[in-house]
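Bug report (template v2)

What were you trying to do?
Predict the complex of my protein with manganese (II) ion.

What happened?
Run completed; filing so the output is reviewed.

Input:
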Amino acid sequence: MDAKELKEKLCYEAPHASKKMSADDISAADSFCEGYMSFLDAAKTEREAVAKAVGLAEMNGFSEYDPDEIYPAGSKLYYNNRNKAIILAVTGKKGLKEGARIVAAHIDSPRLDLRPNPLYETDGEALFKTHYYGGIKKYQWTVIPLALHGVIVKKDGATVNVTVGESDDDPKFVITDLLPHLAAKQMTSTLAEGIKGEDLNVLVGSRPFDGSDEAQNIKLNILNILFEKYGVTEADFLSAELEIVPSFKACDIGFDRSMIGAYGHDDRVCAYPALMAALDSDVPEHTIFCVLTDKEEIGSEGNTGLNSAYMAYFIKALAKKEGLDGEAVLSLSKCLSADVNAAFDPDFPDVFEKNNSSFINKGVVVTKYTGSRGKGGSSDASAEFMAEVRAMLDKANVCWQIGELGRLDAGGGGTVAKYVASHDIEVVDVGVPVLSMHAPFEVVSKLDVFCAYRAFYEFFRS
Ligand code: MN
Ligand code: MN
């Protein structure tokens, strides 16, 4: 055996996915990503992602969970948690007695929420006060076209859906920044300080009602437009969830069109493949659950995040129908926490440790643990479960790689994995590597997106 052969036998290296994928696989990846890109444009918020998932699920024979119904093998159902999180399930041949197969991704993304009392007028402008949601670099949110998405719920319970800034002839919004000519002081501040939270005010108008120059008439004009369009008054902002997101559409990146640039890859780039894998699952062996959850970006908090019991309650309810102990079912279950990881960026090599980083185009990333410092806040997957996942991916010829979030002591982060693990479920993170993660415009590789779909599909079959 020469050195080259011995190297192949003994050494580990994840190749470029195109080396392992056939031409057919590569074109399948490209067409899969067309569906993904329209999903990105149609589902910029968690509520829109749930609405889209419900639509696709119903088209594929799923119906809303009915607590009184019995579900034989092959039943397709979904549980809608407050229109902000959803669980799709397909009941398996074995039911739940040997545990479930769960893929959990999140559908919230970093953004700017409107404050409860957002609208104000100052110095000839009407603006919205925002409160950032999730981890953002604040300066990235200035001087880009923005859209407003969300709901306003009136006192009588009627819900008004709002989407402004998405179609070509829609107006857009923007957060202004200082011209360089006058930015001498700003340019000496840190990136963290140059634009502060209180500077993230969205420009929404500049003409007064009736051309009158009385104070507050620019604000009044905006309120009048909102009243005429939606029938809402200023007090209705108090019961609203309105989100400012980039108004860009998803697009191909690169001469070779190998990548996708878009807002909100984290974590729709795992949520969409997980959803498609569930829709494409025939009658699985074990009952499968595709969990699309909310609030991951702020620590999985609240009753629509996975730090709540809603997923466990749903699985326990189905277990009860089979006469099983729900907690025993959870203990036998296995989960892929489907979330993104940071792709190695050659512009910033100092924060990565190359041998343990993920790279775009090397397939789906299996992240044994996340967290920060000494694995703080992490769910560290067992060697046994890692072996199982490795074997499953290799057997199905799915390109995959390992990855840590970055160099030690450079920072860190977490996923839903630890909240899944808290139910005694076996769990590991598996997702897509992302460039410019949490920026208003993130980049992923199309081959990696397809590898994620194939990984989740195989896991549901396992
Ligand atoms: Mn994420
Ligand atoms: Mn994130």
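What did the reviewer find?
The mean pLDDT is 97. Residues 27 and 447 are 9 Å apart (CA to CA).
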